[in-house]
Structure formats: C-alpha cells, structure tokens
C-alpha cells in the first residue's frame, strides 16, 4: 500500500469511528453573537458556554462580537438572520427589556422578533452605602434620605439600567425622593462610594462584594426572592418587608423568530447540560452570575413578564434614552 492510499484509509477510519468529528466537519459553525466588546463579562460568558456547548452539539462555535448601541446592533443582526439554528444572540435583560422600553432607536420587539432558547444565568443588584454612613438597614438609609435629599442620591452604573429603575421604584414605594446619578460603569461608582463622594449606590453584587466583606462598604440588601450566593449574609428586600423586587437580571440565548421548535429544543437541551456542570457554575459565580437554566417557554414568559412589569415604572419616571 502506498503512502497516499494509507493516509486515505486512515482518514476514513477516523471519520468512521469519530461521529462527532464527522458531524462537526459536515455542519456549519454556530455563531454566538455578543453585543459587547471582547473582554467584558458578556464576552467571557459567551466563550465559557461556547467551550462546552460545542461538545454537546458536536458543532464548531464562533463567538462573534458586534458591540454598539447597548447591544442593539447585535440584536438587529440576529433578528434579521436566517432561522436555521446557526445564529444565536447572547442576550441580557438590559438589551431585551430596558432598551426597548427606554429608546425609540431599539426597533426590535423582544417578544415577537426572537425565539427564546433558554436562560443561562441570573444576577443580583445590591443596595450599597459607604461603611461610614450611619445606616445599617434600608429603612435607616431611606430615613436619612427623607431628612436630607443629599442622602437620597444613589449612583447607578448607567442611565436607563435596571438599577436605575429599581432605585426609582424603591423611592416611590417608600414616598422618599431618591435621585439616580448615572455613572459610566460600575468601577467609577465603586470608587466614589469608597471615597464618600456619594452616599449610596445600586449596582451588581460582584462589584461590591469584596468591599462589603472588607468592611469598606455596606450592602444593605439585594433584590431577588432568595439571598445571593456571593453575599449569603445580606437579606433580600423581600425579607425586609419590601415586596415587588423579586425578579433578577438575566442572560439568555435567543434565536431568530423563524427558528423551528425542534432546533430550539435541541439547543436548549445542550445548554442546560452545560449549565448543570459544577465547574461551569463555579466559574459563573466568579463573573457574579448564578446558573439558572430554563425551558424556552419559561424564558419567553420571563421576557414578556419583565416588559409588563417595568413598562409602567419607566413611563412614570419620565425617563427616555433618546
């Protein structure tokens, strides 16, 4: 047997006894579209999931970063893609709920322009004050704000974010004038909290947990219906008798609306197997997220429910991103 025939036979043997390899080579790659730049938490999440999802699907996966307009560019790209299961959006609640409710520039309809695949994670917002502020509870902070409007200023990582309207609604419900002060990200807000330049902030748990543990900041409460794994000693607003803040922010996979149900179900099953892995759950916690898989229908209900829940709050606030 000459060398050419030997290599040909060897290659055929590998393909015959490696169905996953053969399947991977025969199928076009799956494209996970991320609406943010490489290096951020959304990008890290997408790459972490892609790393394991390719093995579950037997299909190559490409992470495609299309940053801009708070995720709108990526959402529009996927909305207009062919629904063959090869183009999937790495979405979050800001992109799918807050942007459509606050900006006319967001032309997509989250409930009709996409097919829900499955939720990946949930993450918490933390009501936080400097350790020097004489408030050890949300009630005490609200009382300080009632007496002095300066104490009612609370920083948020971005205007029009969940934390923005969480604080707005907290103030309305308590009949206290709380005022959101938008920052360009969580990092400068944390620095101002540490320096005492602002007396409160509402921001993701991951950004404040180390400072809370070090005694430099004080997390008074988190949203959600159960405590955050990163801060098990901090109560939820619900525990404190402040209802209506049980829902969390989330990340999820969405497909174009024309994607067939069997394709969606196959993707969902593979995704949930990935999220069940202990190592993945531990790595997600380091990103400030908790694995929280769902069925496609559960995700669809979550998106619609969040839209219905936040729409009147945002309208009452008078905020617009335009």
Which SSEs are present, and which pair or pack?
Layout: H1 3-17, H2 19-26, E1 30-34, H3 41-57, E2 61-65, H4 72-79, E3 87-92, H5 93-102, E4 114-123, E5 125-130, H6 138-147, E6 153-156, H7 162-174, E7 179-182, H8 186-195, E8 201-204, H9 205-213, E9 217-222, E10 249-256, H10 261-275, H11 278-286, E11 290-291, H12 296-317
Describe this structure in words.
Strand 6 (153-156), helix 7 and strand 7 (179-182) form a beta-alpha-beta unit. Mean pLDDT is 92; it is low at 1-24. The chain starts with a helix and ends in a 5-residue tail after the last helix. It folds into two domains: 3-122 and 249-317, Bordetella uptake gene, domain 1 (D-Maltodextrin-Binding Protein, domain 2), CATH 3.40.190; 125-222, Periplasmic binding protein-like II (D-Maltodextrin-Binding Protein, domain 2, 3-Layer(aba) Sandwich), CATH 3.40.190.10. The chain is globular, with a radius of gyration of 22 Å. Strands 2-1-3-10-4-11 form a six-stranded mixed β-sheet, sandwiched between helices. A three-stranded antiparallel β-sheet has the order 8-5-9, with helices on both faces. Strands 6-7 form a two-stranded parallel sheet. 45% of the residues lie in helices and 19% in strands. Helix 3 crosses helix 10 (261-275). With 322 residues, the protein is of the alpha/beta class.
């Amino acid at each position: 047997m000459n060398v050419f025939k030997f290599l040909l036979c060897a290659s055929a043997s590998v393909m015959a006894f490696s169905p996953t390899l053969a399947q991977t080579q025969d199928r076009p790659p799956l494209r996970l579209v991320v609406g943010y730049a490489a290096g951020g938490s959304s990008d890290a999440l997408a790459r972490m999931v892609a790393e394991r999802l390719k093995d579950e699907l037997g299909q190559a996966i490409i992470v495609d970063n299309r940053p801009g307009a708070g995720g709108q560019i990526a959402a529009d790209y996927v909305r207009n893609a062919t629904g063959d299961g090869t183009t999937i959006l790495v979405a979050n609640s800001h992109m799918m709920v807050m942007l459509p409710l606050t900006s006319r520039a967001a032309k997509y309809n989250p409930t009709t322009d996409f097919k829900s695949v499955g939720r990946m994670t949930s993450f918490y917002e933390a009501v936080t004050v400097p350790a020097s502020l004489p408030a050890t509870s949300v009630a005490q902070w609200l009382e300080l704000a009632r007496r002095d409007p300066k104490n009612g200023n609370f920083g948020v990582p971005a205007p029009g974010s969940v934390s923005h309207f969480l604080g707005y609604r907290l103030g309305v419900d308590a009949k206290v004038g709380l005022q959101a002060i938008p920052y360009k990200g969580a990092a400068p807000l944390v620095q101002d909290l540490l320096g005492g330049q602002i007396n409160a902030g509402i921001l993701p748990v991951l950004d404040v947990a180390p400072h809370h543990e070090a005694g430099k900041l004080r997390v008074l409460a988190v949203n959600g219906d159960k405590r955050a794994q990163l801060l098990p000693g901090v109560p939820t607003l619900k525990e404190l008798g402040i209802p209506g803040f049980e829902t969390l922010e989330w990340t999820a996979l969405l497909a174009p609306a024309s994607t067939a149900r069997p394709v969606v179900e196959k993707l969902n099953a593979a995704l949930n197997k990935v999220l069940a892995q202990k190592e993945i759950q531990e790595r997600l916690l380091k990103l400030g997220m908790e694995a929280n898989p769902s069925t496609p229908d559960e995700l669809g209900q979550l998106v619609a429910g969040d839209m219905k829940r936040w729409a009147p709050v945002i309208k009452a606030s008078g905020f617009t991103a335009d």
